[in-house]
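Subject: for your reference before the review

Hello V.,

The reviewers asked for a structural picture of the protein, and I figured it would be easier to keep everything in one thread rather than splitting it across files. Below is the amino acid sequence we used in the manuscript, unchanged from the supplementary table.
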Amino acid sequence: MKMSSPHAVPHYFVPGPSKWPMAGGIALLLTMIGASGWVNGAAWGPALNIVGILATLTVLYFWFGDAIGESEAGKYGKNIDLSFRWSMSWFIFSEVMFFGAFFGALFYARTISLPWLGDLDHKIIWPDFGAQWGESPAGTVDAYSKMGPFPIPTINTALLLLSGVTLTISHHALRAGHRAKTAFWLFATVLLGATFMGFQVYEYMHAYSELNLKLTSGIYGSTFFMLTGFHGFHVTMGAIMLSVVLYRVMKGHFTAEHHFGFEGAAWYWHFVDVVWLGLYVVVYWL
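And here is what came back from the structure prediction:
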């Protein structure tokens, strides 16, 4: 089934005042305050974190709904399309810096701090400290076991790589104007992402119950859960984005020539795939 071309828009669209940026900032602030309280054992932390997350999702629903309505009303032209592309590019760059900070913390802990704490001078203070990454420091935290690359992390790597392929097939189908094929492969991508998250939940349950590996398990536990946990959050958000795009594809919102809503979500998903490859090598193998 072919998709029709949109109306040509010769002018630059200037949106009116919006309450959503301020509302989104407040919602994110509540989310982070709640998360901070949660990890520090505050009784109000979990409830405030959930309230903040729900508020953020509500803001995104109405904010993106306004943008979709403006797009479907034919108000967006080439200049708006270009501004969206630059905005998404800078957003992904900020995400690169976000994960770069955690990869940097992992690098510093493993290659600088660990050898330094295990040298001859510090043997006087910590004689039982082996300076081996993933080993439980004697007398500091409860004993735990490292998380290896098999089988779940390797399965998840295959799932995300496959999801990148199905998403690319869907994109090519959209550019060819075939809506049914686009929707099918996009649904397959969302399903693979959901399966990835299911395996990660099982991995976390295994880590807590059988390996005694927790967020409080020294620098190894904190870097492991911060890196994999934030990546899992990004996979979840990416799957939600692709689900919304799938709904819009089924509603006939995109055309072969104009579909940046699809492309922006696809860029984000491919970025998440690349981050996971780095995690898979650095966190699980090295």
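For the response letter, the relevant points are probably these. Residues 1-6 have pLDDT under 50 and may be disordered. The two ends are 49 Å apart (CA to CA).

Happy to draft the paragraph if you're swamped.

O.
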